[in-house]
What we know:
Blueprint: H1 2-51, H2 54-77, H3 82-97, H4 105-117, H5 122-134, H6 138-157
Helix pairs in contact: 1-2, 1-3, 2-3, 3-4, 3-5, 4-5, 5-6
Amino acid sequence: MRRSSTFSIRLIIGLVLGVSIVSSPIAQNHTGQVEELIRQAREQGMNYLNSRDDRARKIAKKNLDEAEKQLKEGWKRDSNCQQCVEKLVEVYFYQALLRFSGDFNDCLKTAEQGLARFPDNGAIAYYKGFAHFNRQEHTAFQLAHRGCRAIKKRTLLY
């Protein structure tokens, strides 16, 4: 009897570990897919800005829209998904930079929410600072830049 209960416990632990190992690559693939969409959008967006190639513009816009959709869904499913917020701020930044959205308002609003929840996230502070810079808000940019440097110093100390 004791032998079968030990086997059952090992089986349950094995299944739990197996599920977490199997689900981990899926989450990584999802993140990798979003990062690839953003990378392609940046590349095609810069191509569009340099050459006014409408095809490059459409590809960049489509990729950023798809990344935004996936990140919003991920953030809805898990409100503690720091990487979802970070990448969503990045998407909003590039949408505004490439003139697909009117202003950097979405970027700044999401960055504020993200920094309130994850105050040590340097990437969110970075994009927030450059959103202020692109809006000609140099004082706010300097504050964000100082905050980004402080975050970097804190993380180097640990």
